[in-house]
Structure formats: C-alpha cells, structure tokens
Amino acid sequence: xxxxxxxxxxxxxxxxxxxxxxxxxxxxxxxxxxxxxxxxxxxxxxxxxxxxxxxxxxxxxxxxxxxxxxxxxxxxxxxxxxxxxxxxxxxxxxxxxxxxxxxxxxxxxxxxxxxxxxxxxxxxxxxxxxxxxxxxxxxxxxxxxxxxxxxxxxxxxxxxxxxxxxxxxxxxxxxxxxxxxxxxxxxxxxxxxxxxxxxxxxxxxxxxxxxxxxxxxxxxxxxxxxxxxxxxxxxxxxxxxxxxxxxxxxxxxxxxxxxxxxxxxxxxxxxxxxxxxxxxxxxxxxxxxxxxxxxxxxxxxxxxxxxxxxxxxxxxxxxxxxxxxxxxxxxxxxxxxxxxxxxxxxxxxxxxxxxxxxxxxxxxxxxxxxxxxxxxxxxxxxxxxxxxxxxxxxx
Length: 395
Hints:
With 395 residues, the chain is an alpha/beta fold. It contains 18 helices and 13 strands.
C-alpha cells in the first residue's frame, strides 16, 4: 500500500517526544508499505534530518515553518471561528502538494500525525484516512487556560473550544482515530461519541536504555525534556520553587540537573540557584539518566504518555511524578513508580528514596521489569499493523 505520512515535524532523529513516536511509526509502516513523508521543517536541523531520512531510503518532502512569524500571521484568525493552530501550521504549498499526490492517485491512504496535519487530508474523502491524535490537543489548551491570567486565559480558552470543534470534524470524517493510551481514547469517546478509535501505545527502546545502577551519583535528581515547552517549564519552576528547597533541608546533598534543548530565560535562571544545573542541549540525555539516583516528573499540565517517564523507567531509575505525568503509563504507585501531587508528598517520596539506597534500586529494578513487559516497541506497534491491514484498498 502507498501511504502519505503527514508529520508536524520531520520524523527524525528520535530525540524528543513527538519525533520518537513519528520515527517509530515511519519505520514500522515502511517495513510492508511504500511510505511518502510530507512534513514541516522547523529549522536547519530539521532540514538536515530530512536529508538523513532520504539517505535511509525514506522519501521525504519538507516545507519550511517559521514558528514566530507564523504565529503572528495567524492572529487575524482571532476574528473568526477557526483555531489559531490551523494558522500557525497552515501552508498553501503543503496543501497543494498533498492535493497533487492524492488527485494523481499516487497514494492509497493518508496518515496524519497531530490534528493540524489532519487539516491537509480533510478535503479528500476519496481515500482512506487515519488521524493519529495521540492525545487531544484541545485538552492541552483547556489546561493552559486554567493556569493562565487574562488575556492569555481568554486566548487559550478560545483555542480549546475552536480546536475541539475542528478535532470533532476530523474525527468523524476519517476511517480511524489513533490514541497513545486507553485513557486518551476514553476522553475522546466521551467528547466525540460515535467516531472510530483505536490505541497504539508508545514504547521505549529497551536495548538503548539499559540500566547502569553502579553509575548513579548519590542525591542526584534529573529531569529530561524540551525546555521551551510550557508544561516542562512550569513543572520545573514549581519543583525549584516549592519542592527542591524542602528536599535540600532534609538531604543537603540533593541536587537537580535539568536536561533538554532550548531552555527559556526562566529555565536558565533556575541554573543560578544552589543545587540546580541546566545543561541545555546535550548529545545523549542517557548520560545524565545513568548518573542520577532519581528521575523527577513534576508536570502539572500533561496528557498522553510521557516518554521521559518511560525512558527513565527503562534505565532502571525510580521515578517520582505527578498524576498528570504518570497516568498515561498506567503503572502502579508504590510498586512501579511513586506518585504525589502536592509538595509534601513529593518531598516525602524523594527524600525517602535518597535516604534508602536499597529501596531506590528495588523500585528502579521493578520499573525496568514493568517496561520490559508492557512497552517494547515491537509489541506496542502491532495494532498499527492491524489498522493498516484492515484499511488496505481492494484490488
């Protein structure tokens, strides 16, 4: 089958959440199908990544995105009922390319990753279409609106409502809607009843994330994530303001390393505080995971599945997270990881681990066993094969 794969970012290299997923989807689909990638390139690094995909044999066409200018360009949509998302990720050139390929009958199925990419296949009811939401983006904007002050609260509330209407339109038009957890599918079914849905869970590279407990540094905490992403920034600020000072009162040697590209000025300022280091981009975040005693995931805004949690667990690291950060993983509090949503609970969980090396290793070992049993990519992507086989065109 010939598949047109529409991706919001170039699906390579697998060095951030969405690229981890899209690369795995592309690699799996390409085993049995002819896949053509059409994606936005956000920067020069994306252009180089697209060239690497072409060298690997994956036909890839990119359209350059200028996020700052495109946000400005989308502002007139505030006077309409269209979500700003469709302005930021709008492109007449990309739409024309999609139209050309579908109208030339050079593809049998269109597969869009993220709701903004679903817009490009929406006009084409004549072919099979799959909308890979992973999670509902509209619900992210709802969460943002609850934490912001006016006027941004109003902007995010508007985006939530307008994007949800658009997501409903796409969901009812396509042959399948895909989510990364049963929880996300449940939310979708409650808000958009009657639309088809399936779950294709994210996995983790078990061979690439091997535990190395002998390298762990005492009292070393780590957070890994892209550091211009608001939920990561907000979570780290909360942790630095409210939790880490309390932890250091009880365990003075405790220190946190924030690992991830594009740190905002607010994040860089955290690195000036006692006990906090901010790395910015690193070639291999696993080096920092190996050196940590505990991984923290203090996200108060989150949906879907957090790859940072899966990867830390695969490394045999005990994870202390919030409900928002861990709920998509569907593991057990107290056995596979520790969950706390308030400052007191976070401090107690972290200090308990830092003071008890045996408990730390035991929880980390169980975390590794859990992901081995549930999150191997080969098993997680089997439902994708089933979806594509079911949607094969009749010859």
